[in-house]
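Form 7-S
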Amino acid sequence: MASAGSTDSSSTNKRIIVVLIVLLSLAVLLCGGPLTWWFARRSNATAEVAERREEILSRGLPIDDVSMEAFRARMMGHEKSERWMRVLDEIDSQVFHESCRGVPVVGMTEDDADYVYGTPYRYNDEVRQFLDQWSALRAEIHEITEGTGPIWTRVEMESFNTLLPYVQSTRSVAQLLQLEFEDALRRDDRQQAFESVLAGLGVARTLEKEPLIIAQLVVVAVHGMALKQLKLAIELDLFDEEQLKPIFEQLRALDEFGSRYRLAIVGERAMSQPVFDDLQRFGDNLSVPSGGFSQRPIDALASLDVMAQAESIDTEDLSEFFAQTTALDSQFSQQIAQAGWLRRLETVLTSLTVPALGAVGKAFARSAMENRIAKIGVGLRLYEKRNGDWPDDLDVLTSADLGIDFGPIDPVGGNPFGYRVVDGRAEVWGFDPQLPTDVTPPEPIDVSSLSEHEQYLKYWWWTLPATE
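Output:
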């Protein structure tokens, strides 16, 4: 029989073993439990991300570099692609850049002052020499872009490392056309001025199907440049009815801000998703640890959620579009600010890669308004040439038989653009939208009170003298 001492020793050992098991279990629970929970969340997120991406692809939309290249090729015309890329390559050449030195608009000058119509111009000789030097290139630009639509250019998609040289060169083409337009004004060459404006609108349209925000913002910029030239031409009454109609057709085509916005969102989503699978795609200098930590499925899912909301925003009503993009941007910023440390860690790439939706919405809303007031300006000229007088109000204008379809002409805010006739002169005015609640003021802007940095606001007051 065992002694009492050995029995006590055995009981003590058992108690020690039980305590050790409890402590070990507690350690596993404290350490292994959260890890198990975290890995389970990653696994679930990975499965959901794969499912969401498949759903996006099933709608014919891109989700990575390969599908993005196919999507671009499908969305844009190819007939003029090779010619257009040769033009853009020449615009980007060292020879062209060197020739721009000392030439306004396309290069740097001593005073870099804008041309003011009707005033002496010190760079007239330099401009004429430059335009003559590039006459063949300009002729090719006009032949390609006048009345054109979207044109495909070669781009190798590589997520955030993608290079877009042709997008940037497009802005340079627009500057060349602006220089050409101003030269035409000085020479009173109305046909050349018309062709410059029409080509400028066409240049904007070459990028209208590009599924990237940066490309769409270049569309906004190039479009705006052409509209400022058009405004001056309409106010000076440079174009006849046969010239105004093709210009109006291009304005109507550029009305489609909603489709361009969605393309931008779709493309940004496709460009960002590969980063969540491989952090190295975020930048060449990024150091990524091994062992699968370069994959961020929870982050990818958060990004997909935000971009799905952005894609679903209403684009039928401009005011609602502006309000919803502003609200979504505010909501996203608030979520980031209020997130706990774990959520911030898990969605850090989402916070870095989701575009500034409020700024994007404002840019599209402003561009749409710029286009709409331009349609009114062109329509007023057509009406006056047909009837010998101005319409009583904008309802009379849009219902008149002018052979054109005005489409949407209201700004954000619910109030129509301002319109009146003063001393035989038609005036149309709007405002630069900063908030969705902004509305058309009762009176046009006082352009005489604008500072040097506010001169761009002159666009929002169109004043059309009667045809002489």
